[in-house]
């Protein structure tokens, strides 16, 4: 760490003035101005000189420069074209950083990994995510089966608690199931609003997701599994039976079969979605093939 680090209020303000940069709320631009938080993120990421890092939204490079100091290579996707000249300037001391001016939701991430990180032993995704699209970013990356070994990501506290939630808790839902299906989730630290410029409206959390060698349960059809887990939480207060009557095509007509499918899967139809474990959802998914009239 030194005075010139980007993640300090003084240097960040100087860069904003130099480039006449105005934050765009619509792009979730809250820049980190605390080097201690960044150090915590880096140490949770287990980065070494053979690690390739993907960053989503480098902003002015506050986290990127610290990643560049520890990793072999950094591949950063930034949507805002106005930040590209700023990054060219702030990251000029680091020859191991590649900035791609693209929307992470539209970019061909696999192709960029093959192009820039193929000689790295391990790939981690480390980011202070734009909060308005945390869920689609994570779901896209996880579902696309990319060669990413783990994620250390900052997000809105409430969303982070959902990723990490256990069955039966208020935050447990289809996002918890999707993340825990692919990864082991762990809370790293809670971050106050004051370490950002401008401060966001909510507190933040850093979560670590470590990719499992195999998903936690065996399902015959992943797409169906995720449709069923989403369907179970359509309306949290409703029973699993009622949620599935609305998820399944012409569910009302097939109520008896839905009941039979639930009971033969050992699920009481009066239970609510939040009480079912991932294993129980897998059971439901794999048992559905016995009921060809039921489709989602
Ligand atoms: N990493 C910087 C930091 O911590 O100071 C900035 C983090 S800021 C919370 C989120 C960044 O993501 C912004 O730079 C924003 O422009 C960028 N961003 C927003 N939407 C994006 C998208 N769809 N694809 C790539 N970058 C995006």
Please tell me about this protein's structure.
- This protein has 296 residues and is of the alpha/beta class.
- The chain has two domains: 9-211, 3-Layer(aba) Sandwich (Rossmann fold), CATH 3.40.50.150; 222-290, Helicase, Ruva Protein, domain 3.
- The protein is built from twelve helices and nine strands.
- It has helices spanning 9-19, 35-44, 62-70, 84-90, 109-116, 134-143, 157-163, 174-182, 222-232, 240-247, 255-264, 278-287, and strands spanning 31-32, 51-56, 73-77, 97-100, 122-128, 150-156, 183-191, 196-197, 204-211.
- It has a seven-stranded mixed sheet with strand order 4-3-2-5-6-9-7, sandwiched between helices. A two-stranded antiparallel ribbon has the order 1-8.
- α2 crosses α3 (62-70), α6 (134-143) packs parallel to α8 (174-182) and α9 crosses α10 (240-247).
- The termini are far apart.
- The mean pLDDT is 96.
- The structure holds S-adenosylmethionine.
- Residues 27-32, 56-59, 62-63, 77-80, 103-105, 128, 130, 133 line the site of S-adenosylmethionine.
- Residues 27-32, 56-59, 62-63, 77-80, 103-105, 128, 130, 133 line the site of S-adenosylmethionine (SAM).
Tell me the count of domains: 2
Strand line-up of the largest beta sheet: 4-3-2-5-6-9-7
Q: Estimate the strand proportion.
A: 15-25%
**Cα shape:** elongated
> In this structure, how is the largest beta sheet organized?
7 strands, mixed
